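Recap quiz, item 2
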Amino acid sequence: MTQVTFSPSIKTRPVYAPLQSQGDAPAILLCEGDGALAILDLAARDASVLGRAHLIHIPAGTAHGPRLRALGARMYHEAPSFEALAARYGKALADATMSTRLYLAGTEGLIAKATAAALAAGLPHQAIQAEHRGSIARRMQCVHCKGVTEEVTTDPFTCSHCGLTLFVRDHFSRRLGAFQGVCVDAETPGDVPATQEIRP
Amino acid sequence: MSARLLRVTEVAPLTPLVTRFRFEDPDGAPLPLFSGGAHVVVEMPDEGVLRRNAYSLISAPDDGSGYEIAVRREDTGRGGSRYMHSQVTPGTLMTVTSPVNLFSLDLRARKHVLIAGGIGITPFLSQLRQLARMQAPFELHYAARSRAEAAGLAFLPSAPNIHLHISDEGNRMDLGAILTGQPLGTHVYTCGPEGLITSVEQAAARLNWPKAALHSEAFLSPPPGKPFDVTLARSGRTLTVGPNQSLLEALEAAEIDIPWSCRGGACGQCETAVTACHGRIDHNDHWLSDDDRAAQQKIMPCVSRFQGQHLAIDR
């Protein structure tokens, strides 16, 4: 899948650029699904990026694993989900130094969760690069009940925690790693606009 | 700039060249508290010229009973530090601004690495008190030529995270070793000569440090230079800036109202638009971007000078 072009939006909406090699600095590379293709492209441009790299892959139904493993990163690991990686990813961040670079590739939800965890571990956001590949589904936080609904593809949508009908905003919280969903019919209950598919 | 008249209560030598001064309110009123790394600007009426020099506060940020500074005598300087050393005695009344901080600790940091060269130890002396209160992890690296010249020694406890690098004793600072392996969330603060700040930036770049984790402060005193004329676009008046005067001081002498804070090319308060420039602005500040410098449409009157035929500014 090629890269998605997102429409221009407010400043807080994250933007993604193709990954750029920072050479053989110590690195953590985390990719999910077709995000693997972004890592393969990066390694094709500069193989030295893998010299001191910890490469972690979440296949998510894709079959890129063997090609990623063949890149020859210092460490290679596959996991079924981001949640299953929590201990490994947390340890990689705990062992990282101020020279470490983080490369992320995959859906917005994966990028958002991995970025929030890295920032919480003290990695400066300038050390984080992200390339979007795959679905444009969003990770949404309900601003009312604070519950997070994953894989949101329609606007408005129903909060999976409190049941309110939420408007999908472009307002993004880097700390929470989620877009903000606001009750769409708070003023006139029941007056809900027609549901449409989220566009990039 | 809010300022108050304070009485000098202590003048004590720290080294042959560096003297500590303590200021208190003449009526004993408490002074505003500050944060580690803050500075004040001290006014000196020196033979008809009103000098204003910025000095880092070295006393405890949470102690409002007085402000303390350490001044190094620069015999080849423009005269401010000489005035402090020769004219100021206990009892002298001086105008001192409220503290301003352009070099505060980044409170998001998980660890602070402080790197001081020579008299650049001063802002760290108040920061150390704040770090102690915050119980935040830190290490201090203090480079000086000799123990006799190291004015900060008297204030530094002996502790495993306080490192002295005395070049006369062959113990030079190894910036690569200091910056290698620092944990995520470390911020680095450098104060000292321009060369030290550049060396830290270069070592950090080699080791892949993100720039946002680097902080520095270098107060410049306005460099002397050839006299030059400046036209004030709003009134059409023309002033001459003397060889040992800054453009800011010339504007003040002509009673032109202009905001300022650090007077050392760091804070950006006195930034002034250039309306005509036939010649070259000598940008001596740390404020303008490289693009701004090249465009020659802005000038920092506190430290920058001009060479050429004609300079007009929006004042």
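The radius of gyration of chain B is 20 Å.
The mean pLDDT of chain B is 93.
End of item.
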